[in-house]
Amino acid sequence: MDFTLVFQNVLNGLSIGSVYAIFALGYTLIFSILGIINFAHGAVFTLGAYFTYFLMGGTTGFNGLLANAGLPISLPFWLATLVSGVLVGLVGVAIERLAFRPLRRKRADPLLTVVSSLGVALVIVNVIQYLVGAENYTFPAGTYGNLPPAINFGTADNPIPIRTVQIVIFLVSMAVLSVLTYLINTTKYGKAMRAVAEDAITSSLLGIDSDRFIVLTFFVSSFLAAIAGTLVASSVGIAGPYFGISFGLKGLAVIVLGGLGSIPGAVVGGLLIGLVEAF
Tell me: the pLDDT tens digits for 164-209? Predict the structure, then answer.
């Protein structure tokens, strides 16, 4: 096999695999705390992509309640991504308050919580479709500023062009994963989250507010989903309200491969699946 093609495939695989890792970490964090799979995660992923698109000045299509509408602002991609992450994080907090906490306090069967998360996913997807329609949306030209469309990793005689968007996705994903790893392993909030994941009752007896850290976990999980959704959408566009469904399934495959509840496993699993897809 040609070396240039192998090199391109490896970088492409690492790029998409790192996004899978970020997305799967959202699943992993919720599972480690509550012991359930949050099936609304794919819909939250989609919501993050839409929020970033509109914060950058994008407008809706011809269908939906908000046809031909847009926000009166146009933020740079990086700022729009962060704002989108925070907004979607708050949506995650609302999901926890409305769909998970009441069942948790009633000590309901975990299956009911899974059904509740599926219901939330359906609500989010249908609200998106009702408001902005089912059209595909593409991020505007110049999303990454003045960066060239591709970067040559070879020579003038033997070029190895790699799309800039793939490089940006990989670097941003690695930065997010590094920050998250630092927060979980070294800060008091991360240690408290791990204590709640280990045993919520014992951690409560030790003075840790379990509900507070469960809410924080939902915020972080949804923030990660929004970042992942934005990165993917910046490369391939938003393929309608069901955009996140296929990624939701791949995220499940990642956490099964890497081990349910394992953060390092989610990262390794995401990168492996990305590389397998690339080849």
Answer: 888 888 888 888 888 888 888 888 888 888 888 777 778 887 788 8
Dihedrals phi, psi of 158, to nearest 5 degrees? -130, 75
Looking at residue 139, the DSSP 8-state letter turns out to be P
- Token pair listed for 34: 């509550």
Distance CA 104, CA 112 (A): 10
What does pTM read for this prediction?
A: 0.91
Distances (CA, A) of 186 to 13, 79, 84, 214: 30, 27, 26, 18
Contact 163, 150 (CB under 8 A): yes
How do residues 224-279 score in pLDDT, each as one tens digit?
A: 999 999 999 988 888 889 888 888 888 888 888 887 777 788 888 888 998 888 87
Both structure tokens of 44: 């939250």
3-class SS of residue 209: coil
CB 223 within 8 A of CB 215: no
**Residue written as token pair 């914060």:** 55
How deeply is 263 buried, as exposed, middle or buried, from its count of CB atoms within 10 A (0-12, 13-18, 19+)? buried
Please state, in angstroms and as integers, the Cα–Cα distance from residue 93 to each residue in 6, 64, 88, 195, following that order: 42, 27, 9, 20
Cα angle 194, 31, 179 (rounded to 5 degrees) comes to 55
Residue 120 contacts residue 40 (beta carbons within 8 Å): yes
CA distance 163 to 19: 16
Neighbouring residues of 155: CB distance < 8 A, sequence distance ≥ 6: none
User: Which amino acid is located at 260 in the chain?
Assistant: L
Residue with tokens 């192998």: 6
Candidates 18, 76, 38; CA nearest to 220 is: 38
Cα dihedral across residues 151, 155, 156, 159: positive or negative = negative
